[in-house]
Amino acid sequence: MQFLTQDYTRNPVRPQDEPQTKECVLPETPSVALEFRNVSKCFGSLKVLKNLNFALNTGRIYSLIGESGCGKTTALRLMNGLEKPTEGEVLLNDSSFDYSQAVTQRRQMGYCLQGYTLFPHMTILENLSVIASRSKWSEEKILHRAHEVMALLGLDASEYLKKKPRQLSGGQQQRVGIGRAIFMNPKILLMDEPFGALDPITRNEIQDVFIDLQKKLNLTVVLVTHDLAEAFKMSSEILMFEKGHLAQRGRPNHLLMNPKTEYVAGFLKTNSPGHILEEIPLFTVMFSNVWTFCNNATGFMAYNLESEETRLFSSMDQFVEFKGQSSGLFFETHQDGTLKKQKALRGEKSLLDALKVLVSNEENYFPVVDKDNKVIGAFGKEALNALS
Questions:
Q1: What domains, with CATH codes, occur in the chain?
Q2: Is the N or C terminus of the chain more exposed, i.e. has fewer CB atoms within 10 Å?
Q3: For residues 6-19, average pLDDT
Q4: 196 SS3 class
Q5: How far is CA 328 from the centre of its chain?
Q6: Residue 36: helix, strand or coil by DSSP?
């Protein structure tokens, strides 16, 4: 490893090119960056991939998704030359992948894994430039490129290049991991669960950074992920694998609206955010600052479900005045506590069911009742704000 002695904080002088006037030309038909032709892969008697045929165009993000063991990571390793197909061929930029020159071929691509995979004893600059140093880049060229990459990642080179990975947050380390993958100016970037080790807030932030980066660099990205929401957010197209073959590919909305098989429909349903909402019972997310009221022999009685306070009123006017001054919602019940007249939501139903009712009606809130039709709370459109 070549250790660099230059001042890390110095931004190398860059040649200032004169702006060029470009002619307006029609967009070209996208070229194919990667292609599988009749590709199968066996490990012993186990056939992991089965006669795969697909092409991936330049400048787009593709997500490979499916259940564990479906073959998506093996497909990624075939693209990078870490595995060789048992049958068929992998093409890189319209040329058959030359496995006798796998290291050279591999350097045309970036590779980014889960968990940052930074070398803890190296500085950030040394981590970024591992391959460049082995490729005999000059110190000046490495430092120049390091400043470019750090700027693309939104990191201050003067602050971070001298640091060790342990001095960075998880999100910053992941940015550096991406920076190392793009350091050699690849046109193709392969990513295997790259954001899986991050907390949800950091993961969302890094995803946004990466989407902007991909657009700036016009990268062709192949992303292996288990996270359907991540695939939907980031992908131009999704390739869904099932037991070693390609079950369906298409834009996210196409898969949702037109699943070709029961497997595809079931996978989308089981792994979708909607499924999570289906698993949450409504009674766990309703609010309880709710008053029930009813006529009794002496006037009106009101009861608050949250504070368990009971109020008695001898006249309608007293009750109306109290209602106007109180916070919370009011629902009329019979004397046995069951709801009177108004449409209600059942507490044992799912949050998804409740949201569907909310968005299809003009009412801002609904009472929530138990199996005996007794009011146990309320659910309103402010729940949409809580979910956003």
A1: 32-277 (3.40.50.300), 282-387 (3.10.580.10)
A2: C
A3: 48
A4: coil
A5: 37
A6: strand
